[in-house]
Amino acid sequence: MTLDHPLAIGAVLGLLLGLGLVLLILDNPWTRRRDLAARIDPYLRRGTARSSLLAPGAPTTGAASVLRVLAGPLADRAIGLLERLTGNAAQLERRLRLAGRRGSVEGFRVEQVVWGIGGGVIGLVLALAAVTMRGASPVLGLALIVLGVVGGVVARDYLLSSAISRRGARMAREFPTVADLLALAVAAGEGPVAAMERVARTSRGALPAEFAATVAEIRAGATVSQALIGLGDRTPLDALGRFGEGVAVAIERGTPLADVLRAQAQDAREASKRDLMEIAGRREIAMMIPVVFFILPLVIVFAVFPGIAVLDISL
Q1: Which residue spans adopt a coiled-coil conformation according to this UniProt entry (predicted)?
Q2: Which of 27, 95, 149, 237 lies 20 to 30 Å (CA to CA) from residue 101?
Q3: Is 237 left (phi over 0), alpha (psi -120 to 50) or beta?
Q4: Which of 187, 182, 167 is nearest to 244 (CA)?
């Protein structure tokens, strides 16, 4: 069945009619859900009316106004669906900080839109191939396009989550060594800010870069305690958050900072050992799959086959 087939044309027209009816039902003033501002707006005291010539912003044309009214609710619903899939603006901003990205939420949303368009293009190509070459239903082609768009958006969000996980694992590997370097620098007589600056200057990696950002915040006017707590908020490593709080408390109360840093480094090494044991336990279970399904059947075959051959010869 091709695209010029009467059944395909009827299916497309019926789909467009159904989509139009759904939009009319959902977006008419009687069924549209009103927010709190719209409910209390008629009861507020109005100020004096102003001329439209004095209103801020450039006046919009009739076509632009109509397009905004028609596409505005649909765009709001699309943004709401995108936030339900990938989190709201506050959650996304925190995830961007955890991933080490300096961009804004709007920039990431633009990237998601671009990925969604790319997925939609791939879905469109697959849909055209399925409809024209295989004679599939146009509804299946539309489903492929929608799945391509959603898949592109979700894939970009998955890459962000993967970046957060990789950055957390990299910081977990760097944290014991960096804590030891800080302890040595403090024991040698340097202050906490100078020690962090030395580590950031002489080391390379994700964690020294965060210490450099922490030193920059302190130089900009933030207190050491606030900068260390902010260090824990910007990183996906929980141990680093406890490290920042412990060092901040030690500075406020006058506790020997070198001992605190050594204890933090020892705790980080113990945590890394526990993580390695957990990873080894999971890998041990995964290694049972090739042993049970591939190696063990071959061992049984090699053990039983000579006996079967001897029985065949004797018979």
Answers
A1: 75-102
A2: 149
A3: beta
A4: 182
